[in-house]
Structure formats: C-alpha cells, structure tokens
Design goal:
CATH topology: Rossmann fold
Pfam family, one: adh_short
Number of strands: 7
Distance between the termini: 53 Å
Protein name: Short-subunit dehydrogenase
Order of helices and strands: EHEHEHEHEHEHHEHH
Number of domains: 1
Shape: globular
Family: Belongs to the short-chain dehydrogenases/reductases (SDR) family.
InterPro entries: NAD(P)-bd_dom_sf (IPR036291), SDR_fam (IPR002347)
CATH class: Alpha Beta
Strand order of the largest sheet: 3-2-1-4-5-6-7
Helix content: 40-55%
Strand content: 5-15%
Number of helices: 9
Keywords: Oxidoreductase
Length: 257
Amino acid sequence: MYKTALITGASSGMGYEYAKYYAENHYNLILIARRKNILNNIKFDFENKYNIYVTVLPLDLSKNNFIEILNSSINNITIDYFIHCAGIGILKKFINYDIAIDESIIQVNILSIVKLLKYLLQKMEKQNYGRILVVSSTASFQPVPYMNTYSASKSFVTNFIISLIEENKNKNIFISLFCPGATNTEFLEKSNITPSKWRGNIPNAEKVVNYSIKKFNNNKKLILYGNYNKFLIFIQKFLPRFFIPKIISLTIKKGSS
C-alpha cells in the first residue's frame, strides 16, 4: 500500500521538486498551492507517469479558513509525510510597501505552519507515525534589512520547529528543519531578490531539494545547504549583533528601494 505525502507550495520551485521526488518513489500525493491549473497539470503528469494518486487542493494559506477546508478534504486519509515549502517574501524598504504585504507574510510564513502542524501532529500522534520536513531559511539566523518581516517570520519558524523537534523526540514522529540559502526559484524572482555576488553560482531547486532529502532520509534534524551558508551562520556567533545587519544591508541594498 502506497504511503501519502502532503506537500505545500507544490506548484513550482522546491515544492514541485519535493512532489516529483515522492511521485517517483511511488507515494500518493496531496498537493497544496494557490494555482489550480498548474496543480491539475502536475496531477495529470504524475498520475500517468508514476501510477499514483494525486489530490490537488488549491488553497490560499493567507486565508483564515484554509485549515477547515483541508480537514474536510483529508480527514480520513493517513498522512505519512508532510513537506512544508510554502512561503512568501519581499525585498524592499519597510515603509515603501503596503501593510497588507506584511500581513500576508505573517499569515503564510507563521500562522499557516502553526495551524498545519497543530492539525497534522494530532493526526500523526493518533496513527503513531509521521515524518515532517519544514523549509525555513538561512535568513532566520539573523536580522535582514529590507526583508524585515520575512527574516523575522523565518526566525519564528526555525525556533518553532526546533522546539517541536524536542517535544516529539520520544515519539514515532520525526521532524526535520531545512534552512537553504538563496535558491534559483520563482520565489527569488517574485521577491525581487538579487543575491550577493560573493555567493557565487546560485543552486537550482532540484539540487537543493535532493540534498535535503538525502539528509532527511538519514534523520538529520537541522539541515543547512552549502559551505557558504554554513560559514555565515557560524561566523556571526562571534560578531557584534548590530554589525551583521549592517553588512547584510550593504550586500542587498541595490534594488530594494
């Protein structure tokens, strides 16, 4: 009997790559994203290629009622794996865009994962099994000027997931946190982000996802991608608190007005 993986942000980028991996490995899928047409195309493709069953749920995680719709759709389905990729951000001076964007970032990046895990962890505890991979960001480890709300929201996610890892360590539920750096995806494009030239080549979503899956399958609790990102996270432990955002500001200010 096939296991089932629930994946958010599944219409493009890393979410799509996770969906493709689990489809190739013969998992039934429940795919969540806003764009129904794209999800339906993925469903048609995967069901024909891999002989699996794909459920598409075109949900907007910024809406308050999405969890009720999700529950009514999957209440009787066992969720073996949950991969959370959905997230939004913007690169712009804080006062130069509408507060509605901040509200959406908080809804999607913070409230949605709280609601999803409150619901799914209860399901997994009842079935005495579950594996969870949550995608956060290396931006969660420091304040990021011009991405203020985004980096703060990811700091919440990182601390929230690490605390849940501890809470669930003696259960048959494994939780992993993945913090990639800049990745060549639609998210990067939509957020108007131009990564620093010091990063070198930006990896594509497939490469980053495959790396994280290997670590996830080996029960790695905290996954960081790339030596550049690992070095930055390590070195900032020894730097003054206000020095870090000053350096970050210099590297990303262009195009952020």
